[in-house]
Design a protein that fits this description.
Blueprint: E1 24-26, E2 32-34, E3 37-39, E4 44-46, E5 56-61, H1 74-87, E6 95-98, H2 107-110, H3 116-137, E7 148-154, H4 156-168, H5 173-176, E8 179-185, E9 213-215, E10 219-220, E11 232-233, H6 245-250, E12 258-265, E13 297-313, E14 316-325, H7 351-369
Parallel strand pairs: 3-13, 5-6, 5-7, 7-8, 8-9, 10-14
Antiparallel strand pairs: 1-2, 3-4, 11-14, 12-13, 13-14
Helix pairs in contact: 3-4
């Protein structure tokens, strides 16, 4: 995309800091977005610590944002930027960001009876992007060695990354060695998705922070039913992974309720305006609030709690991250719970936990390999 909207140079440092020295990103239209946050309910500004030659990379695949099959349009570029800012931008404090554009299946194609061709097209693009990144961008220019990498993906992006990892990472020890972790949310990653990459677990603070493993979950504020869209398998022997990032950081079992550190993108981040406060993500964010603030995000450090739950029956298994607490800050008052639960804000309900986890895992990986 033109003008390097991630605003990072080859070392991962910002090319153009904001006028106040803050780390900003840039829409194709030219609008800049700060990654600073406003703490709720205190309304205190929290400055985002910009990167300083980050030692690891992040390879991110965005979720379904193409509603009607117009992925090449200018409007879709705005959508891609909005979803990247909402989900992945704050990881740039730890990572050099790599975000390949891919020909994803549009929402209308996903709902069709024959969606495999459209999904395969996007997966082929992700495969190609990964191989290009791994063979060129991942190699450090001074040591000529491969760098550590974090995989980030959501929904269709997580599904495409899972398929790529089964071919390009999971069966290859030399590549697997450089995986810090894979955070694959809302993509129904199961206990059988990988042969060699385990789910991340840590049940005590005395245990080291795990690396080379997978974090996955689908979040719900209400207990999901069998017709809900995510978290289900047809076999009770195989279930969708649920790794609670807050429990992983605190060294507790994933089924124990833990505080979630939530960040919601603001109207400014989503390129919104008075007529369209949710900007390019208006259709996707139906039923969810988007706060109005000069900051890029509103930080809710104590509004939510999360715990993994697993339900088995003779017909299959359901596994999900149960989110409890004050969800009024995220959902609109008259919005009924959609069949997808909190799917569109899977990253946001625990974004503070996830970014701290990536930092802790990156630190642990670097200590073990250097």
């Amino acid at each position: 995309m033109a003008d390097n909207p991630c605003n990072q140079d080859l070392t991962g440092n910002p090319q153009r800091p904001g006028s106040d020295g803050s780390f900003t990103m840039r829409y194709p239209s030219g609008q800049t977005v700060t990654l600073d946050a406003e703490r709720s309910p205190a309304s205190r500004k929290e400055a985002f610590a910009g990167p300083k030659k980050p030692s690891v990379d992040c390879f991110y695949a965005y979720p379904t944002v193409d509603m009607l099959g117009v992925n090449a349009s200018r409007a879709s570029e705005e959508q891609l930027m909005a979803v990247m800012l909402a989900q992945a931008a704050r990881f740039s404090g730890t990572c050099r960001m790599f975000v390949p554009i891919y020909r994803q299946a549009a929402f209308t194609e996903i709902l069709s009876l024959d969606k495999s061709a459209a999904l395969t097209r996007g997966q082929a693009d992700i495969d190609s992007a990964w191989r290009d990144y791994w063979n060129h961008d991942n190699i450090a220019p001074h040591t000529h060695r491969h760098r550590a990498v974090v995989i980030l993906g959501h929904s269709q992006g997580a599904t495409a990354l899972t398929a790529m990892m089964r071919r390009e990472i999971d069966p290859k020890p030399a590549v697997r060695r450089h995986l810090v972790s894979a955070i694959l949310l809302g993509g129904d990653v199961t206990t059988e998705s990988f042969r060699n990459l385990p789910a991340c677990t840590r049940t005590s603070r005395r245990e080291p922070v795990p690396t080379g493993c997978v974090v996955a979950y689908s979040s719900y504020a209400q207990r999901p039913g069998p017709k809900d869209m995510f978290g289900h398998t047809t076999s009770p022997k195989n279930h969708v992974l649920c790794v609670n990032p807050a429990a992983l950081l605190n060294g507790t079992p994933p089924t124990r309720r833990q505080p979630l550190d939530a960040y919601m993108p603001t109207q400014r981040t989503l390129n919104g305006n008075l007529l369209s406060p949710k900007g390019s993500m208006g259709t996707v964010l139906t039923g969810f609030k988007v706060p109005d603030s000069a900051a890029g995000y509103v930080h809710h450090p104590s509004a939510l709690q999360g715990e993994c739950q697993l339900r088995k029956s003779a017909h299959g298994a359901s596994s999900w991250l149960q989110v409890s607490g004050d969800t009024s800050a995220f959902t609109e008052p008259n919005a009924k719970s959609p069949l997808s639960g909190l799917h569109v804000i899977d990253f946001n309900v625990a974004q503070g936990n996830l970014t701290r986890l990536v930092h802790a895992q990156s630190t642990a990986w670097l200590a073990r390999h250097h």
